[in-house]
Design goal:
- By secondary structure, the chain is an all-alpha fold.
- The protein has two domains: 389 residues, Up-down Bundle (Growth Hormone, Chain: A), CATH 1.20.1250.20; 40 residues, GTP Cyclohydrolase I, Chain A, domain 1 (Orthogonal Bundle).
- It contains 22 helices and no strands.
- Helix 5 runs antiparallel to helix 6 and helix 6 packs antiparallel against helix 7.
- The longest helix has 29 residues.
- The radius of gyration is 21 Å and the shape is globular.
Amino acid sequence: MIVALGGFLLGFDSAVISGAVPFIKSYFLLNEIQLGWSVSCLILGAMLGNSVAGPLSDRYGRKNVLIVTSLLFAVSAVSSALATQFGFFIVARIVGGIGVGGAILIAPIYIAEMAPAEKRGQLVSFNQLNIVLGISAAYFSNYFLLEIGDNNWRWMLGVEAIPAIIYFSALFIVPRSPRWLYSHGNKLQARIILEKIGGAAYAKTCLAEIQESFDKQTTKASLNQVFKRKYGFILLIGLTIAFFQQITGINAVMYYAPTIFEQAGGGTKAAFMQAVVVGLTNLVFTLIAINLIDRLGRKSLLMVGAAGMTVALSVLGFSFNKPIEDINTVIVLISVLFYVASFAISFGPVMWVLLSEIFPNMIRGFAISIVGFFNSLVSFSVTLVFPWELTHVGPSGTFFIFGGMAFLGLLFAMFLVPETKGKSLEQIEKELIRK
């Protein structure tokens, strides 16, 4: 739960900008592209964090990388809240993005490497739960700070420093990952931690599996190793699920939720309140996913969620395909909630669980950095062009595009995604490399 607090911070950091959007637009006098840049620059920072977090965690440890991300969150929160120049604001948000990119990859890896196989899906999903808690907290915070005065957006962005400092302090009491310790020759400490998790027999079995996994590696981990032919199927799964998680528009909806509801004809305060409801829906259905992921499995949840997203986005496309005075705001709200609920039980938590499971011990850090970078690149592209799309393609066309991508994601889940529930990381490694 301590490590998963990083998810809370990245969720808060990602969603808090949604409330600040109309105010920074007028304060910095931004056009549509600049506004999209002010939101998406966080993801640009995340791409940098993605690209270095895995290798750094392999070298210096998962725990140390997470400590650094907590400091980046605090610095970003304070700096963006104090910004008076647009360029400085962008740099501050990029710094926070580096923290996002590190936390979103390394927290699931750490939890997966600590968790017993039968509970791994639930425990890794705690990170996603904290992400949606952070998103919900950001929406609530924005709503209550909305009428605080001219500097409301500064308070919206600055309050994140408080949980960031708490996270920094709490990380010092968690142990290092036993698999990381083993890979660096500290087998005794790895055994001690595994015994604390599951007892002496559990530790003995785990150490034997870890030893077998590392014995098969004849070369040192490197970027070139990730692209070897035997890892091709695993990398295909990772890159594809990373693509569909973002191309279906979740971050566009979460970052611009108040803007979407205003385009449907709602007032500013009502739009902010509806964004709060979106955050709560995300939270409730993430809890449902955590309860089901180790029982129904990863593949089933992906298929159900992708089907629901396809339906919801199609309804949104039809709803916006009319003059604004004829748009039914209730249908828009219900469709957005259904879309968010479908994402929250599928691609939201399941992607991070799968990414923490499918990559072999030897290449896990490098591989998840590559996939995480690609995931952030897709997210950056979608978020950057979303304000432009709303103006030039229109909400209807935009949501139809997202819906088409969700349908392709359904086909991917049906025909390519493997089931990993109840298997040790080393068992999954054997099966997928053989496949």
